[in-house]
Amino acid sequence: MSTPPLAHPVPEPHALPHGWARWLGATNHKDIGTLYLLFSFAMLMVGGVFALALRAELLQPGLQLLNPDLYNQLVTMHGLVMVFGAIMPAFVGFANWMLPLQIGASDMAFARMNNFSFWLLAVAGVALLASFGVTGGAPAAGWTLYAPLSLQMGPGMDMAIFSIHLMGASSIMGAINIIVTLLNMRAPGMTLLKMPMFCWAWLVTAYLLIAVMPVLAGAITMTLTDRHFGTSFFNPAGGGDPVLYQHVFWFFGHPEVYIMILPAFGIVSHVIPAFARKKLFGYLSMVYALAAIAIVSFVVWAHHMFTTGMPVTGQLFFMYATLLVAVPTAVKVFNWVATMWQGSMSFETPMLFAVGFVFVFTVGGLSGVMLALAPLDLQYHDTYFVVAHFHYVLVAGSLFGLFAGYYYWVPKWTGVMTSERRGRWHFWVSIVSLNVTFFPMHFLGLAGMPRRYVDYAAQFTDIHALTSVGAFVFGLAQVYFLFWVLLPALRKRGAPAPQRPWEGAEGLEWEVPSPAPFHTFEQPPKLDATATRVVA
After folding, report:
1. What is the dihedral of CA 155, 156, 160, 162, to 10 degrees?
2. Which of 269, 339, 418, 467 is catalytic?
3. Can you tell me where the transmembrane regions are (predicted)?
4. pLDDT per position as a tens digit, 365-419
5. Around Cβ 333, how many Cβ atoms within 10 Å?
6. Domains contained in the chain, CATH given
7. CA angle (356 as vertex; 352, 359 as ends), nearest 5
8. Closest CA to 278 of 343, 352, 370
9. Model-level pTM?
């Protein structure tokens, strides 16, 4: 069932910007969204190569390909590239593309700042990767950059600090842009409690970014002054405390986990109702759950620090506060399942990734509950159990959410339909290889295998070999996505997409033609009572 186009579509201007000038000086939210998405996918591939180099080294015990220092550099850069270069920018790309379309706005609030925030990120990404080329190589202190190890690194650490500062500034500018756009540029009739769930997810995420990115900036600035200006914030020789760095870093780091997953919650909250052909169950409770997760995320940071010797009272507080996060998260999972319950379900590629997201994210959430228990965490801490947990949340969570959103909205972006057969291959190979890679890591951790070690005892060989094979298959699945799914879409090869390609899809983004015109909603649209349709 298709919806007729807008009664008065905005005519395309005769001379749209083109060539390099279009992209370098881009101020249109769709162009900037595309830049973010292409940059993040390139960084995903780079970070994936780092990960596969690590897994190739761990295929057998002993040293095969990497010396210990290079191994530690790749561990560190894999984390930094994936967090700051791949996952976060990808969600910002989705925000740039979809938020104005979903609220009936003509563009983002601050178009030139939008352009600046992207190019700042691009420069930072290049500078981060360039740290491999300086004396001593890239930073090798883990993605958390813990002191005192970070105080002893070469100039590659300074380049990483500089890059993270730029990425943080880019994130703050992007968050300000998103907040102002969502609060001030909604079409008349779209109240806050009629906003789509992806908009709500990003509104909460943007406030989190503004709150915690300055905290990270403070932590790495103190590291910089300890390294070069004689301060002793974290240097025990001068009266500093390395554990202070952990407190400051994780006050940023735990809300950061939700910065990387809340937008995925928003995406899945669109895909599941569309393919269940039902309204989202419990919209209001979903909004409150998003806000509750964000608020509680500020009081759980020290669950990363149970082994630092904190008092039992502190352990109890952070343990119970962490377990409290499970409540609003369970509300969201329950509502997704309730939306699917007795729905008229179909399993096109976006729905496969969305259902896969719910399954594997729940696995990651359950292992998170185990890590939240202080007595158990003393055993699990810094083992492969932790590696398994956060990869289930971030790879199976964030990445699957991104793929669900890509397959769901790409007809609106490009005007062509993705091959269902290729999308299904991408999904099934990805989810099987992902579980082969990361599920056995739980048992490695339970058996006492520490993470970030370049070598290991012979009894861990079989599981390491299995996870390495799974990792390479997962990597090949993303190469398949690049060449057989993404590039054909960019070249507009495929069946033409109708205005509303998914029968159950709701929202203003489906009220414009496919592909979405360069300028949309120059005049605020008139909405129906649900704020999901345009009336003539």
Report:
1. 30
2. 269
3. 35-54, 74-97, 118-140, 160-185, 197-220, 257-276, 283-304, 316-338, 350-374, 386-407, 427-449, 469-490
4. 999 999 999 999 999 999 999 999 999 999 989 999 999 999 999 999 999 999 9
5. 17
6. 261-461 (1.20.210.10)
7. 145
8. 343
9. 0.95
